[in-house]
Amino acid sequence: MLTAVTGINWGDEGKGRVIDLLAEHADIVARYQGGNNAGHTVVTEQGKFILNLLPSGILHPDVTCVLGAGMVIDLDHLAGEMDAIEERGITVDEESYKTLMEKQRATAREATARNVGDVAWVEDVLKGVKGGEDFVGYESLTAESEILGIVYEGERVEAIGEGDAAQIVLTRTPFYAEMGGQVGDHGQLTCGEAVFTVTDTQKTKAGKYLHYGEVTKGSFSVDGQVTGGPAYYIRAAFKGKFGKFLATFFSVALILALGFMGNMVQSNSIGDAFHNAFAVNRVVVGVVIAVLAAFIFLGGVKRIAAVTEKLVPIMALFYIIGCVIILVMNASAIPNAFVQIFTLAFQPQAIAGGVAGVTVQQAMRYGVARGLFSNEAGLGSTPHAHALAKVKQPQDQGALAIIGVFVDTFVILTLTALVLITSGLIPEGMTGTALTQAAFSLTFGSFGKVFIAICMLFFAFSTILGWYFFGQVNFNALFGSKYTKVYSLIVVLFILIGSSLKVDLVWALADFFNGLMAVPNLLALLALSGVVAGIARNKKD
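RESULT FIELD:
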């Protein structure tokens, strides 16, 4: 739920100025309520209270301008108060009234024509958005509301992030729109810690209230769900067309790398594991995984979170216990395993091969590729998940993200590497899931293949759900949420196709697009490093 709060002390015009001045006199403020003619009501029905505050002399239009919601009130509205005015010894400057009234009428005509012309283009952009005409500003300066539509750089989008200037339409608003010579209200929209500073309010021909402004903190989305990730902070790091290009490039690369190609890798791994363990046709496994994934995808982010938060701890604990059991039983081979790791990394033959442009080059290529694919550090994928977290300080979530990389790389992968090396099966030429299942089978027998198949189901399927969500955030940023089902269908098809493809082709495609998406993300991280350091020191930007 979003809270809209109109400004009070932001100028000499508009409703805010009226309330600011009348606030000095509680008896009048208490009566400042009513219908569309609230300003006139103050004068005609409560004129005696107002006149009691006025000194004797000339009743100048500037005075009634304050009492008339920022507008000059026609003398006809003071007809019932003339006796009281004369008793106070106050005379009316009729010539000034006539001059200002004519000026006000001209301003109103110009403003009406200008407003319709200025915001006419928004009608097409917001086509299909229902609501946005509910104004509650006469009753209250605040309102609980929800976002119906967001316009960013002339296009309808699902979410905006810090630094983005946009127009927002709400289900209900206390912001008075510019019309009849009166300026539009200013103020803030807040949702949790996120802040959108409203600098102007306009009204479309269809009656929708447009709140112009900029996100000064956090992010806003149409469905109310907190949204974040590189697609948003890249635009904060690089303004203008360059930032928009990099953000778009990142979104396209991520959708291809994780949403499509990456999920093919995961379904391929599950298909291989179950085929080796149970001799099940890979296509059948792919169909089952695709159907399960589609069911969860349709449930949205809440269903995805509900499933993954249960799967991840179970799968990690299950796998770690299995690895520890094997290493305890192969304890005598562990020292030699570490010797092999360092020897193969630094032996002269490896260096010679590097000079020839083969061994070291390939080692770096696969090392970087598999490292990115495993812990995703610097890739720009996990920020989408971390953006959903509610923490007191951003650096708290950053520390948790670092722990995730540590557990994945230094715990899970190290355990896996030691199990594979101590098995002695690496020289036999096996790779991927088949090698891991063979290594576990040396200790667990035929159950080893089953063990890895179950672990692979947990690991890979939870990754499918997470990568689907990361892709969805970026897909919505590009095309809007109304096409989300199209994206979901494409992902399901890739999951099905990936289960039966050759593993080398699937990995090559995933590695290529991973490299593409890392580039714009790393550029943004470098550009925002000063901001991150400042936040870590509890300094405001």
